[in-house]
Amino acid sequence: MILEMKVPSPGESITEVEIAEWLVQDGDYVEKDQAIAEVDSDKATLELPAEESGTITLKAEEGDAVEVGAVVCLIDTSASKPEGIQPEVKEPSAPVAAAPVPVNTSNNTYASGAASPAAKKILAEKGIDTSAILGTGKDGRITKEDAVNAVPSMGQKVDVDGRGVKRSKLSMLRRKVAERLVSAKNETAMLTTFNEVDMSPIFELRKQYKETFKEKHGVGLGFMSFFTLAVVRALKLFPAVNSMIDGKEMISYDFYDISIAVSGPKGLMVPVIRNAENLTFKGVESEVKRLAIRARDGQITVDEMTGGTFTISNGGVFGSMLSTPIINPPQSGILGMHNIIERPVAVDGKVVIRPMMYVALSYDHRIIDGKESVGFLVAVKEALENPQEHLMSNDVKKALEL
Fold first, then answer.
1. 3-state helix, strand, coil in the chain (%, to 5)
2. pLDDT, tens digit, for every residue of 155-209?
3. Strand 258-264 with 310-314, pairing
4. Which domain holds residue 356?
5. Main-chain phi, psi angles of 251, to 5 degrees
6. Which is the catalytic residue, given 297, 369, 390, 395?
7. Residues 255, 319 within the same domain
């Protein structure tokens, strides 16, 4: 019996995926539930498991965009497993940089494969020679998409002259992130306001309780729980920041689903901490750890990255001192946290050294005014500089469940 394996739907509103990598080869014997491919959607990378055991015939190539429901391979379930032969399976891995682009040294343009008829027509209309394009299709073939995305060089050629050049196709996830970032810049009235936070009180609390906290709960007492709970408090005080625009209407929420930007092997991912207002320090730290591990291992699902009402981006873990984070549509606000550096500051008329951190709030000025944005950021600052009062109700041990 020949089984047709079709692309399952990764989530609502997703109609197309891209074959990121085949983990088996054409003609291999595969076991039921064995991962045979990695597919990229515009939100996540997912594994495609074999539906039955048998010999596989691939019907799509790496890099192909295929519609949900399309047949990508056939499995001959009547085939028996070869005796003493293990199927060759490639382990999923992080993307590897493409090999240097071959160079045609006679005219300093890229060597490339043939162009499809549709690609030739589009390139001819643009006045671009096929020798100047590096195709992303099989064996360097120039596809219609390559031709559509090609930009005339305005008479200027890059002098490669035998030096190494790397070129690789952007994943569907990365392309979607790029589209969303450009959309956020073009379709929102984005503005950023800044403040600074003295992190001494949090440093003292962590120094005193982090070991006990980790021993009891199995997770560390990091900064994200303080950031998240401070944001929830500020959102309650300034609900406009927890709102979105839908056409001519403003939608406000009485719950707080906080998106946290994390770096995964396929790029930026933004999983969501659901109902953060109901979580304790232990709850937030446990959820952050769980989501970060899933993102790192490529196991995060579309549902886990959908529906946040506000985003926290902690560029400080990479050493960022100051930035203007871009709103995560359709949300209306994003808080950027940065690295903590000891700096001289004035306290009660004296210069002292304190661990200071800059914070930045980017917001959609269409529905959030200066009063709300500045007030929100001040509320975050207040909570971080006095967590015992604003986040722990003056009972540290109870708040940390010690």
1. 30, 30, 40
2. 445 555 667 777 777 776 677 777 777 877 788 889 999 999 999 999 999 999 9
3. parallel
4. 175-399
5. -105, 120
6. 369
7. yes
- Decide if 97 is inside a domain: no
Tokens matching residue 385:
């500089």
- Over the stretch 2-58, which tens digit does the pLDDT of each residue have? 899 988 877 666 788 888 888 898 889 999 989 898 887 766 677 889 999 999 999
Residue 194 tokens read as 């800044």
Residue 328 lies in a domain: yes
- 69 and 128 in a single domain? The answer is no
* DSSP secondary structure code for residue 383 in this structure: H
Q: Where are the beta strands (DSSP E) in 295-332?
A: 310-314
Would strands 243-246 and 249-252 be described as parallel, antiparallel, or unpaired? antiparallel
The single residue listed with the structure tokens 């390559």 is 146
Segment among 92-106, 206-220, 367-381 with least mean pLDDT: 92-106
Catalytic annotation on 365?
Answer: yes
Token look-up 């406009």 returns 240
Burial class of residue 332 in the structure, from the number of CB atoms within 10 Å of its CB (0-12 exposed, 13-18 middle, 19+ buried): buried
Closest CA to 315 of 326, 331, 306, 307: 326
pTM over 0.70: no
By the 8 A CB rule, do 315 and 227 touch?
Answer: no
- What residues contact residue 204 under an 8 Å CB cut-off, 6+ apart? none
User: For the chain, what percent of residues have pLDDT higher than 90?
Assistant: 45
The C-alpha atoms of residue 229 and residue 169 are separated, in whole angstroms, by 39
3 state SS of 202:
helix
Q: Which of 26, 365, 390, 395 is catalytic?
A: 365
CA dist list (Å): 107 to 2, 110, 157, 181, 310: 50, 9, 10, 37, 52
Angle at the Cα of 94 from the Cα atoms of 89 and 97, rounded to 5 degrees: 110
Q: Do 249 and 333 share a domain, yes or no?
A: yes
| 187 and 145 in a common domain | no
